[in-house]
Amino acid sequence: MDMQIKIRDKRNKGWFFLDNEYLNGYAKIFGAVGTAIYVSLCRHADAEQKCYPSQELISEELAIAPRTVRKYLKLFSDYNLIIVKREKNSKGRWLNNVYYLVDKSEWKSIHRQQMPMD
């Protein structure tokens, strides 16, 4: 029996960029849940590395609690993996958070930091 396997075509859209440096070190620190949340941010990022998925959307996509998403977003910010900006409309009402994925050259070293997990 001869099976045909379709190999993925990287030219097709529907892919995103995740830095190897994250998987080579930070994934071990943040674990599977934190890594899934970071992957979600990467997936939603545009060419300028800016994204604005709601915490509820991330929690729905990954089937985790919004509180867990908030916890890891804070940790990513502490390690300088992301910068969080809160946007307001012209009337001063909060709209949403905007997340900027920071270049790996700016990330805090995991060798000198201890991960504050539960």
Give the CA-CA distance, first to last residue: 51 Å
Largest β-sheet summary: 3 strands, antiparallel
How many helices in DSSP terms?
3
Going across the biggest sheet, name each strand in turn.
Answer: 1-3-2
Query: Could you report the average pLDDT, rounded to the nearest whole number?
Result: 86
Strand content is: 5-15%
Question: What class do helices, strands and sheet pairing give?
Answer: alpha+beta
Tally of DSSP β-strands? 3
**Low-pLDDT windows of residues:** none
Order of helices and strands: HEHHEE
What kind of oligomer do you see? single chain
The geometry reads as globular
Rg calc: 17 Å
The helix content, as a percent range, equals: 25-40%
What does this structure look like?
The structure is a single chain. By secondary structure, this protein is of the alpha+beta class. Helices cover 39% and strands 14% of the residues. The chain contains three helices and three strands. Strands 1-3-2 form a three-stranded antiparallel sheet. Helix 1 packs across helix 2 and helix 1 crosses helix 3. The longest helix is centred in the N-terminal third of the chain and has 25 residues. It is globular, with a radius of gyration of 17 Å.
